[in-house]
Structures
1.
Amino acid sequence: MYNNWEDLKNNCMTCQKCELGQTRTNLVFGTGNPKAEVMFVGEGPGEQEDLSGQPFVGRSGKLLDKMLAVIDLDRTKNIYIANMVKCRPPMNRKPKPEEQDACIDWLRNQTALVNPKIIVCLGSTAAAKIIKPDIKVSREHGIFTERKGIFMMATLHPSALLRNPNNKPAAMEDYFKLRDKIKEVCSNTYTD
Ligand code: URA
């Protein structure tokens, strides 16, 4: 465990704990406000993220930004965004269990330092690891559960919404529930 952000980031940036370290262009550590009360966790970097070193900068990131804007959230100000794995799985395949296991301590350490009140899991990879292994995001999205004082919710991954735009209204409802939960349990998110 690193107890300051710079040490954590500097050590993470040279990670070779799994084979994804060999094929990445850039490690994607995360972005946003490390003091945010709300943290988003995606699956892993895609091509654009690998090239830029920033999470959610491709098409799914643009959609995420739009949905965040509807509830007055801005990725540079009042949230922190990270991924389950920090390096791009080749051909955008799902990260393997052993890759997730190798990477999870970085996310745990990020979470410990951000100390969020709310965690939003984007898609089933993050939801299975963070909320419960057998979660069905298609059925259980938008439902908050609380653990150790942190409220957690899964929503559909923005890439899934690009593939199935019919699900966008249902996903937007999750963001409205998120806004309500922020108003209930966060004190700085909507005032900064
Ligand atoms: N999908 C993810 O899960 N994370 C990213 O950073 C980009 C796309």
Note: The mean pLDDT is 97.
2.
Amino acid sequence: MRLTVFALVALLTLTNCAEKNRSFSKADIAIVPQPLSLVLNESSFALQDGQTIFSDLDEQQSAVKDLQNYVTATTKFTLVANADKQSAIVFEKKEGLDPEAYELQVTPKKIIISATGKAGYFYGVQTLKQLLSVEATKESQAITYLIPSVAIEDNPRFKWRAFMLDDARYFHGEAFVKQMLDQMALLKMNTLHWHLIDDAGWRIEIKKYPLLTKVGAFRTDSEIGTWKSGKTSGQPHGGFYTQEQLKDIVAYAAARNINIVPEFEMPGHSSAAIAAYTWLGTAGVKIDVPVKFGRLYDNYDVTKPEVVTFIKDVLTEIFQIFPSEVIHIGGDEVGYEVWQNSKSVQKYMKEHNINTPADLQIDFTNSISKFIEANGRRMMGWNEILGKNIHTDFEEKQGDQEAEKELAKNVIVQFWKGDLELLTDAAKKGYGIVNSLHDRTYLDYSYESIPLEKAYSFDPIPEGLDKQFHKNIYGVGCQMWSEWTPTNADVERQAFPRIAAYAEVGWTTMENKNYDTFKVALKKMQKHWDTLGINYFKDSDKLEAALQAK
Ligand code: ACM
């Protein structure tokens, strides 16, 4: 059973030399991601049953609860809430810190967690959890729970630290998503980019258009193995989240300082929706939810007012489910042939002085961006939305894809493919950028192509980008596309342990990053995953040795 309760012991070091109190060495400290500064002092704090815990603000309560649950699960001790500031563990407001920053002071007598708000307190607790050391004496088997005396000041390098889960190709389900959120939280990742809609499945209940899930969430079979393998599983597949479930997951994430950014792909990758409602498509051809993966033929016909109304209706329900400021609209890999072959689309383009299909996409994207902004949100999309042709490898001739029009300014661009100059240009123009360069951050890629060290050494700020534009690089995303990982165990093998490397990419300064230190800390994290039954990839060391030997 994958209960968090049993997971906790995994973080802990079991030694044979328990003392009531002892000093620790730097080698005993294993925190992922590595904090900004850590001073290790003599002695330690010994955790005991019934110790008091002080907090006086609402914004501290999710961190307090998380710590209490963790301590009880790990030690069976209870931490007792107390109105006295002389308590053993104290949560303290400290003005002037950044929103996710915290300070953690541990002395033999007291633990103080200071922050300026909810996120900081929560992260202070995540670090405290990783510091807890369980020690047993050989003779008596008496166990003590020690926390090394430390003074930590911590603050993330980037504000955007994302994991993307592709729930469209395979439906993973509520329990799995919550497990991922738990692991992200411990790693101080703050964004779940949730790819919920694609050709292969529509996973969000939309009340106004019930066929989206009734039809679009299910397919009769699935291609397996790899692209164009010609093999299928022979099994039907499907599933979706009700709005109630989604709201519950959003709240679960929020309690862990994780914002969920939903992705509603448009105008391509839209087969599941077109299977539900043929009139959404450009080709006017009735289709089933595709069994094969890859870029597919039809797109939303963005020149039809009823299609634009549909998209706005769906977005309106999405706004009600997801409080996220940022709403992702996909925008990648749009095949333009279906628009080029449509008389009515061509007529529309002529009438509106739109010269290329890339411009039609930008025109549409900008109008949806306006709608999103009018609703108090902000659009995000894959970097094709800038209108540059980054696909030289598509089989079909796309014609001239370079757009003349410019993407609306307030949009966040998720850079995944193309010349790095496109990224630096966009950053210079003032776009917010999330760096998800595919050959450095795609978790579906093999460990041979992205070994752990390559994942770890990724820098979201491209070389040569002038310092004044660094602020436009919001951070990093790592993406778990799931075409070829039908089971949750497959997804875990691809995501873990690389997700921990990306967590450190997003959090830790370049000066503090050290792959050897990371690997030592990762060992404890792996024990934690072991107790949870998480199927992480275990052969990183072997693989790296083999790659070096080559
Ligand atoms: C993508 O990998 N198509 C964004």
Note: The first helix runs from residue 4 to 7.
3.
Amino acid sequence: MKTSLKYKRILLKLSGESLMGEQKFGIDSRKLNFFAEEIKKIHSLGVQIGIVIGGGNIYRGLNAEEHGVERVTGDLMGMLATVINSLALQNALENHGMFTRLMTAIKMEEIAEPFIRRRAIRHLEKGRIVIFGAGTGHPYFSTDTAASLRAIEIEADAIFKGTRVDGVFDSDPEINPNANLFEEISYLEVLQKNLRVMDMTAVSLCRENNLPIVVFNMDKPDNLLKVVTGKQVGTSVGHSTKKEELKTK
Ligand code: UDP
């Protein structure tokens, strides 16, 4: 029997920090292989997959000034860090038998293709996983914003934000054990309550372009598969929650 898919084209956002696993810095190959296995489960169902991976496990521009590095230079370093992670992920995916392309927002043609929207879509249609490296190519942005931008550009059905917690909570679940998980929440509520889903620029971009966000725990086996096939996992962020709709009726 053919598995029915809720999402046919997705943009998966993984943080750089998630690659550290138990380490304090860098890339844990076990984590990389785990992600590759999880991604393969949905790739084999025919889901078209774009991926943006952050660089926080290597360098963050925000912390640059503490080390006497100018912010813009620090951001460039951060964007290069995302390319290192992208190459590592590309390697892991190919080791697991998937075809991939790495496209970067900053040209580095010996390493990756430059980002060309129509070409990216063509790769996806051919079943290649496209990894988007070097963020937006501009300082003062984050890879969350890059992920939202690319998701909109490739006309993804949704952006999947893989995290190490189960979704969006009313307070930090790593600090408060009684924090409540939202199954659904609106963009507006996320912005007004300053909930840690993605940064404000990224959430606003999704809101303006009607791009659903699904926040889920990427560390739990099969979660990615469950989200793609429409099982209730994590938190969906959209225009309005059912509760809000009821209130306005
Ligand atoms: N960055 C940037 N422009 C972008 C994307 C990223 O300047 O469009 C830089 C920024 O310095 C950021 C770093 O790259 O701190 C790493 O990305 P991010 O912090 O988003 O990674 P994550 O938190 O997902 O690991």
Note: The helical segments are 29-43, 71-95, 117-125, 143-153, 187-192, 200-208, 223-228, 242-248.
